[in-house]
Write a structure and sequence with these properties.
The chain has about 350 residues and is of the alpha/beta class. The chain has two domains: about 170 residues, D-Maltodextrin-Binding Protein, domain 2 (3-Layer(aba) Sandwich), CATH 3.40.190; about 130 residues, 3-Layer(aba) Sandwich (D-Maltodextrin-Binding Protein, domain 2). The protein has 14 helices and eleven strands. Helix 4 packs across helix 5 and helix 7 packs antiparallel against helix 13. The longest helix has about 35 residues. It is globular and about 65 Å long.
Length: about 350
């Protein structure tokens, strides 16, 4: 009995020590985001989905705590905050950082382009899997991409009907990024630089006549309260956000946890595209009902006709030159962003 008691005591002690060791290895990671927790849009909803899935797939061993609404780092601060280890995960609005991330901004130089949300995300996954230069660009800033969050297919939301290129003449259209200014000029309109948060008032007071946007985002910002015409001009899906990690945090994970993150990043894209599609359908139903937004088809041929404009071609060539200088076969990549490419 005495020996059995000793063995039981030793076993209990071993369990306690093992439990302490497991507890010590458990991690609570920090996610930095500009999104408000209660936003209810596809971005916020799927961020929470990823966080919940991470805990589930690691059997509760690891967790992610989300710091919503820019409470730790504002939108333009997130890359530096992640690189410095202030957070472990975060969402980076890639077009805000053209000088830091020229390769990873590829899609932003090719508007319009033929791919939808899911296809743009898969395109970015393929680029990272095929060309190490895309990941190296981030690694040089102590960042690692775990996933991609493209925006939805974009059209134009306007405060007046636009049915052809002729109707574009003289309009003031919100502009940002690389391709939009030259594209808007090629369409005969005037690009106006205005912040997302100011576009509601801009449309309301006719400071701008239109803004490039998708239905879900238009509803999220409530632009459709003051602009009642959505023009189905086929701009394609914009590439929006990197789901990024601090590279040291990623490399510091054990193999099993890192495998969970790698798979979760791929699964996130599919879940995000699904939720976004449902959100867009809901918004379009609202537009047909009480919100009273008229959806207008725009002739695709007229849009594609401006792709030969010198300014539009100049922007595309700018990315090709940068990518070639980085050792990437840019002309081959650019074919996927052309309208004659299979989509």
């Amino acid at each position: 009995m005495f020996i059995n008691a000793i063995l039981r005591s030793s076993a209990l002690a071993l369990v306690a020590v093992t439990g302490l060791a497991a507890s010590a290895q458990a991690e609570t990671y920090k996610w930095l985001t500009f999104k408000p927790q209660g936003a209810g849009d596809a971005q916020a909803v799927t961020t929470q989905w990823l966080v919940d899935e991470f805990e589930k797939r690691t059997d509760g061993k690891h967790k992610i705590e989300v710091f919503w609404g820019g409470s730790v780092a504002k939108t333009r601060e997130i890359p530096d905050a992640l690189a410095a280890g202030v957070g472990d995960f975060g969402d980076i609005i890639t077009p805000y950082f053209p000088d830091q991330m020229p390769l990873n901004n590829a899609v932003g130089f090719f508007i319009p382009q033929p791919m939808n949300t899911l296809e743009v995300g898969q395109f970015m996954e393929e680029l990272h899997a095929t060309y190490p230069e895309f990941e190296d660009e981030l690694a040089s800033q102590n960042l690692h991409a775990i996933g991609f969050r493209p925006l939805e297919d974009y059209g134009l939301l306007c405060n007046k009907p636009v049915r052809s290129v002729a109707d574009m003449k003289g309009l003031r259209i919100r502009s940002y990024g690389f391709a939009y200014p030259k594209l808007i000029e090629a369409l005969g309109a005037s690009p106006v630089s205005i912040a997302t948060s100011e576009a509601y008032e801009g449309l309301q007071r006719s400071i701008i006549d239109c803004t490039p946007i998708g239905p879900a985002l238009a509803r999220g910002w409530k632009y459709d309260e003051v602009a009642k015409y959505y023009i189905e001009i086929p701009l394609g899906a914009s590439f929006g956000h990197l789901l990024a990690m601090n590279l040291d945090s990623y490399n510091g994970m054990d193999d099993d946890t890192r495998a969970v993150i790698d798979q979760l990043g791929r699964d996130y894209l599919v879940e995000y595209a699904r939720v976004l599609s449902e959100d867009e359908t809901r918004v379009r139903d609202l537009w047909q009902g009480d919100l009273g937004v008229e959806v207008i088809d725009f002739p695709q041929g007229e849009l594609l006709g401006v792709l030969e404009d010198a300014g539009v071609k100049e922007v595309r060539q700018e990315w090709i030159d940068k990518a070639n200088a980085a050792g990437v076969p840019a002309d081959e990549i650019a074919k996927s962003l052309a309208f004659d490419a299979p989509s």
